Amino acid sequence: MRRSHIAIVLAAAAALGAPVIAQSGPGGGPGGGGRERMEMLRGSGTPADVKAGTYALEPGHTQVTFSVSHMGISPYAGTFSGGSGSLTLDPNKLSATKLSVTIPVTSVQTTSDKLTEELRSADWLDAAKFPTATFVATSVTPRGTDSAAIEGTLTLHGVSKPVTIAARFFGAAQNPMSKKDSIGFIGRVQIKRSEFGVTKYVPLVSDETVLVINAAFEKQ
To answer: What highest taxon heads this organism's lineage (predicted)?
Structure first.
């Protein structure tokens, strides 16, 4: 695959928050010409396999990753976890979908213990004063066969703003451990953290912040 084509695939994947794996194709590897192919991770089933009903967020397998530009040198990411929430949907009537998710801000984690504590402090997210972040959907609009635009209100650091999440269906199957019908989605949204009152080190650490949501739900 030509380098320009690789860039296009990566950009498309990033737009939907899709995990991407780079592998050597035929002739790849040492002395093999280095031809690459890109594969997007996919789950089980199709959107047609999603059963109508109410689902609860599965906290152990739901992650929210944030990414910023660190001084224009490198991207830097961290995660939030331990969320809770509810999703009520009918695949044949997505416009009636109800979605509400809460994430504990104290769950923030990075590869630096010092930075993790700083992010929880009043200089950044002020987890003591604003212990949770929430998203409540106001509308869901299909975008093709397996994607949707989810409009709603994000509340972070005590500030509420409208955002639109670009979401893609990932998988639907019965969880072999819990024996519950489960579904998963990937979402992506870009925000300006300063609009939520998180202004520390802007612009050395970018104002633009990308949130990627790996969401798992179990049918109730």
So the answer is: Bacteria
- Dist CA 219 CA 178 (whole Å): 11
> 43-219 domain in CATH 3.10.350.10?
no
Tell me how far apart the alpha carbons of residues 186 and 163 are, in angstroms, rounded to a whole number: 16
Handedness of CA 161, 200, 207, 205 (dihedral sign): negative
Question: Rounded to two decimals, what is the model's pTM?
Answer: 0.82
How many whole angstroms separate alpha carbon 23 and alpha carbon 32? Answer: 13
What's the chain's average pLDDT?
Answer: 86
CATH 2.40.128.110 segments of the chain: 43-219
Consecutive H or E run containing 60:
none
CA angle 150, 152, 156 (to 5 degrees): 125
Helix H or strand E segment including 53: strand 53-57
Asked whether the beta carbons of 180 and 159 are under 8 A apart, the reply is: no
Dist. CA 215–CA 127, nearest whole Å: 22
Cα 62 off chain centre by? 9
Contact 196, 159 (CB under 8 A): yes
For 183, other C-beta atoms within 10 Å of its C-beta total 26
**Residue 88 identity (one-letter amino acid):** T
What value does the mean pLDDT take over residues 182-192? 97
Which residue in this structure is represented by tokens 């080190």?
201
Residues 157-185: pLDDT tens digits?
A: 999 999 999 999 999 999 888 889 999 99
